Give the backbone structure.
Amino acid sequence: MSVVSFKVRRDIKEKMRKYRDRINWAEELRRFVEEKIRELEARDNIERVIRELEKINIHTPAGFSKASVREDRDSS
């Protein structure tokens, strides 16, 4: 593992110290960072897929949606 450090206000540090018997701050911060990274990677992947889909040249004939809905309703 690697060590990461960051600064917090003094009052936050005191509150963290106050509750250190109830919460493992290192574990909580690790989980937070891991979750945030998962969110960012998911967002990047979605954006990549959207860019790839935009490259695909798909055209729908005029009236296709209307005809499809009408066909579906008539088959019921």
Remarks:
- The radius of gyration is 26 Å.
- Residues 10-74 form one domain.
- The mean pLDDT is 94.
